């Protein structure tokens, strides 16, 4: 149940700021109120749900300030993860990262949003595992969960797909092929900074449309 609701929220089945009414959720997922309440508590701890006075739980609505803050931390941590991968990853992890990138290069442009998200998640799962740092792992999970609510904005932006592949290729070449920690850090940071700029631009456009 937790995974189902989380996936639906990240797939934009619920709008930012939308009330999460227990009775409707019970009917939709065919579970009890007790289960729904526990799931909402967990999602609130992940930052996907916010409890608003006099309204109850709602889908977290990220402001431009929130987005900037999240991407600043993501940039620092993913840069460190890339550097550590270059130093610590096994030969198998380096090969796995290359295989995911090859698949993305072939199919990313034609894939739908869900498929793109799955491929990027696989790329980052390998990168973070190769960094061998559980603090980075656990911290980035929370950040990625909140950022993923807006990833569709950047990933579907015109021209972003080929840029993403070029940026991930630079990460792979620096971290997995050359084992250059400094270059890997920089490549990761460039990717996150570009994603942040696109997300903020698309978020601003969406807010103007809704005014």
From TrEMBL:
Segments forming domain HTH gntR-type: 1-62
Q: Which Pfam families match?
A: FCD (PF07729), GntR (PF00392)
InterPro entries under this entry? Answer: GntR_C (IPR011711), TF_FadR/GntR_C (IPR008920), Tscrpt_reg_HTH_GntR (IPR000524), WH-like_DNA-bd_sf (IPR036388), WH_DNA-bd_sf (IPR036390)
Per UniProt, the keywords (alphabetical) are:
DNA-binding, Transcription, Transcription regulation
A Gene Ontology molecular function term for this protein is: DNA binding
Q: What is this protein called?
A: DNA-binding GntR family transcriptional regulator
Species this chain originates from = Streptomyces iranensis
């Amino acid at each position: 149940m937790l995974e189902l609701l989380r996936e639906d929220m990240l797939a934009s089945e619920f709008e930012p700021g939308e009330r999460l009414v227990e009775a409707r959720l019970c009917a939709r997922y065919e579970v009890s109120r007790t289960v729904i309440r526990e799931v909402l508590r967990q999602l609130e701890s992940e930052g996907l749900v916010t409890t608003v006075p006099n309204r109850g739980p709602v889908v977290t609505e990220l402001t431009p300030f929130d987005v900037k803050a999240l991407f600043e931390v993501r940039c620092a941590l993913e840069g460190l993860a890339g550097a550590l991968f270059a130093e610590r990853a096994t030969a198998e992890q380096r090969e796995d990262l290359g295989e995911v990138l090859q698949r993305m290069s072939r199919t990313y442009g034609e894939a739908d949003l869900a498929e793109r998200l799955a491929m990027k998640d696989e790329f980052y799962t390998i990168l973070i595992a190769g960094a061998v740092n559980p603090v980075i792992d656990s911290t980035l999970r929370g950040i990625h969960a909140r950022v993923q609510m807006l990833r569709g904005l950047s990933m579907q932006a015109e021209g972003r797909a080929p840029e993403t592949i070029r940026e991930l290729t630079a990460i792979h070449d620096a971290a997995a092929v050359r084992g250059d920690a400094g270059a890997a850090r920089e490549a990761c940071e460039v990717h996150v900074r570009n994603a942040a700029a696109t997300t903020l631009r698309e978020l601003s456009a969406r807010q103007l449309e809704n005014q």
